[in-house]
Structures are given as structure tokens and as C-alpha cells.
Write a structure and sequence with these properties.
Blueprint lengths: L5 H13 L3 E5 L5 E4 L1 H7 L3 H4 L16 H10 L3 E11 L2 E12 L10 E8 L2 H45 L3 H26 L7 E4 L1 H14 L5 E6 L7 E4 H30 L5 E15 L2 E13 L6 H4 L17 H11 L3 E7 L2 E9 L4
Parallel strand pairs: 7-9
Antiparallel strand pairs: 1-2, 1-5, 3-4, 4-5, 6-8, 9-10, 10-12, 11-12
Helix pairs in contact: 5-6, 7-8, 8-10
Length: 374
């Protein structure tokens, strides 16, 4: 590999120095090789005073709260993101920032010690305001969840109370047996509701599988439901390697997402066809891809499985976008609000995440699961 020319190095230095993000480059001994102006401003230091010195030996008021993160990146050569760090660097100064720590390996010789790049993302006042707004939204969502749960519980409780009152008024053994059966059924319904809210309680039983086997099973189950007319398209990357997951739980998660999309499309399409007197097709696309160097839950993975469930339904209203994965909160009149909550929990157990993008006519749920799940 040829060395970068003078012009390239000059451009890199210009970008490094003028970046709004704080940048610090360390060698394998954590000595400072370079530091930019944004870092000087954030940490109130001068590059002339700190160059070639060990970053963690500098006279900070408190030990850097991310020292172990840097050491972990140095050892594992994995990039790590640490959110909302509050570091008291002087007795009268605390700085708040997000931090990305990246191991920069030599492209010519992988055995050479890696340099470490620290990227400081300052948290300004607006971000703190956004955090307060998110907290308020969370409180509202919690209230909606409680109201939803109360609504679901009141129905079987009403049935139990009514059956018990009727039992008090009758001397017929046959009637008493009937009312007892009603009470047992309603108690079972309450138990099932609580179990579904708690989600799967069994530990994962991972095995190496082809993700397309699960998706084909989901496709057959959905197509077997005669309540909806749906066209399911495949957009598979057939070169994907096997992935180690819990077959049954991941099937449940993906099925919940697809069924949610099917129901949303069906209700929407029925309304559109009635208004326009013409039949429009519901379409759901199942897409698989591999993503490289993807960050999930503050950890970066070399390879990540991406499964996208895309529908051409009405889209998700703004009023429920921030509460999609809360249990008992649903955008549909007859929805329980449990399907997506359970789906998210299962994916989370696989160290993955679910992303959602939506607008009228196009909604995409993207399930991300790292290949390194053990």
C-alpha cells in the first residue's frame, strides 16, 4: 500500500483540527499523539501541555469515568460508545458528553498495536431539553399502559363478579356448575394476559439456523390465515451464513411483527376500498441483509443480521410512534398492544434491536441481531 501524499495528510490535519467533535488520538500506551481544538475547548486543556503525555495521568480532578472503556477497546479492538458521561475535570467544572472509542488497526500489519481514537460529542442545553421531553413522553406512555391494562383486566373481572352474584341467587346445581366454569375461564384469561405481558420467561435455547427457514415459516402461517388477503414478497440475501438464535422465540418475534403489519394493512385497505370502490393489494416484503460495523446498544459488531418487514399500509400515526413497544399501548381499536412489546423483548434477549421508520404507504420494521450473540 502506498503512503498518503502530502496533500492528503494536509487535508486530514485540516479536518481533524476544525472538527466540531472533540478528537484525541492515543497510541498503544495511551500517550496523546494528537488533539484538536474542540477537545481543548471542552476539557480546558492546551495541546502543547499534553502532547506525548499519558492521557489518564493528567491532573484531572476525577479519574476519567471512561478509562475502563478505553482499556477494553485497546484489549479487544472493538469500538464502544458510552452515553451521557458526566466528568468533573476540575473542582468547579463538570463536562457532559457522549464518547466513541475506536481501535485504529494498521491496514498493512494487523499484528501491530492499534492506536485509539476518542471522539467526544458534547451534550448541550438542547439535548438536555430533549431528555426532559423524552421523560415526559415516557410518563405519558406509562399512564397509557396502565389505562390499557386496566381496561383489559376489567372485562374478565366483570365476568367473574357477575357469575359469582348469579351463583348466590340460584339453588340449581347445573347453574352453579355453569357459573363456576365461567369464573374458571375468566381467571384463565387473566392469567394468560399477565403471562403475555411478562413475555417469554424461558431462557434462550440457541442453535445455528438459516434465518430464511424462520421467515418461510412466518410466511406460511400468515398466508394460512384466511381473514386477510395479503401478498408476501421475498427479498432474501441467500448468501447469509447461519446464525445462532433461539428458533422458536425468534419465530414468535418475527411473526408478531408481520401479523401487526398484516392487521394494519387489512383495516386500512378495507377503508380505502370502501371509499374508492376499487380493490388495492396489501403487500408485505421480507428482506434480509448483512450489515457491517453496526452499533447496537453501545457496542459495535463486525457483522449484523438485518431482517426488514416492509408494508404498504397506512403508516404509524405520530401519536403512537414513541410508544410502539410499550405493552398495552396500541394504535388499533381492537389491539392488545402486546405483540410488539414481546417481539422487542425477544430480540433484546438476542442482544439485538428493532428500528422502525414509517410514513403513509411505507412502514419498515428492521430487526437487527449480531452474529456474536454468545
Amino acid at each position: 500500500m502506498s503512503s498518503p501524499n502530502t496533500s492528503t495528510l494536509s487535508t486530514f490535519k485540516f479536518i481533524f483540527d476544525h472538527s466540531a467533535i472533540g478528537l484525541v488520538l492515543l497510541n498503544e500506551h495511551f500517550e496523546i499523539l494528537a488533539i484538536n481544538q474542540a477537545t481543548e475547548n471542552l476539557l480546558k486543556i492546551s495541546r502543547e501541555q499534553v502532547l506525548n503525555k499519558v492521557f489518564f495521568d493528567l491532573k484531572w480532578y476525577q479519574l476519567a469515568p471512561f478509562a475502563s472503556t478505553v482499556d477494553q477497546t485497546h484489549t479487544s479492538r472493538r469500538s464502544i460508545i458510552q452515553r451521557e458521561i458526566n466528568w468533573q475535570i476540575y473542582s468547579d467544572l463538570t463536562v457532559a458528553f457522549d464518547l466513541a472509542v475506536t481501535a485504529l488497526e494498521s491496514q498493512e500489519n494487523a499484528s501491530e498495536p492499534a492506536n485509539i481514537l476518542l471522539e467526544f460529542f458534547p451534550l448541550d442545553r438542547m439535548m438536555r431539553i430533549n431528555k426532559d421531553e423524552a421523560l415526559w413522553d415516557s410518563q405519558e406512555a406509562t399512564q397509557a399502559m396502565i389505562r390499557g391494562f386496566a381496561h383489559e383486566v376489567k372485562n374478565p373481572l366483570g365476568g367473574i363478579k357477575g357469575a359469582a352474584q348469579l351463583m348466590q341467587r340460584t339453588n340449581s346445581v347445573e347453574d352453579r356448575n355453569e357459573y363456576t366454569a365461567i369464573i374458571v375461564d375468566e381467571v384463565d384469561r387473566l392469567t394468560d394476559l399477565v403471562d403475555r405481558m411478562l413475555g417469554p420467561r424461558k431462557p434462550l435455547a440457541p442453535e445455528f439456523i438459516n434465518i430464511h427457514e424462520i421467515l418461510e415459516r412466518v410466511k406460511k402461517l400468515v398466508e394460512a390465515d384466511q381473514r386477510y388477503s395479503i401478498k408476501i414478497r421475498r427479498d432474501y440475501d441467500t448468501s447469509l451464513p447461519l446464525i445462532c438464535v433461539d428458533r422458536h422465540q425468534l419465530l414468535q418475534s418475527l411473526l408478531n411483527i408481520v401479523q401487526n403489519a398484516v392487521q394494519a394493512c387489512g383495516e386500512y385497505r378495507k377503508q380505502i376500498n370502501e371509499e374508492n370502490s376499487r380493490v388495492l393489494a396489501d403487500t408485505i416484503t421480507l428482506r434480509t441483509r448483512v450489515l457491517h460495523q453496526e452499533t447496537i446498544h453501545h457496542r459495535r459488531y463486525k457483522l449484523v443480521l438485518s431482517v426488514s418487514i416492509i408494508d404498504n399500509g397506512p403508516g404509524i400515526s405520530d401519536s403512537v410512534k414513541n410508544t410502539l413497544f410499550y405493552p398495552m399501548v396500541s394504535g388499533r381499536a381492537n389491539g392488545s398492544g402486546l405483540g410488539l412489546a414481546i417481539a422487542q423483548w425477544i430480540v433484546y434477549q438476542h442482544k439485538g434491536s428493532i428500528e422502525c421508520e414509517s410514513e403513509p404507504g411505507h412502514t419498515c420494521f428492521k430487526v437487527l441481531i449480531p452474529w456474536e450473540v454468545t
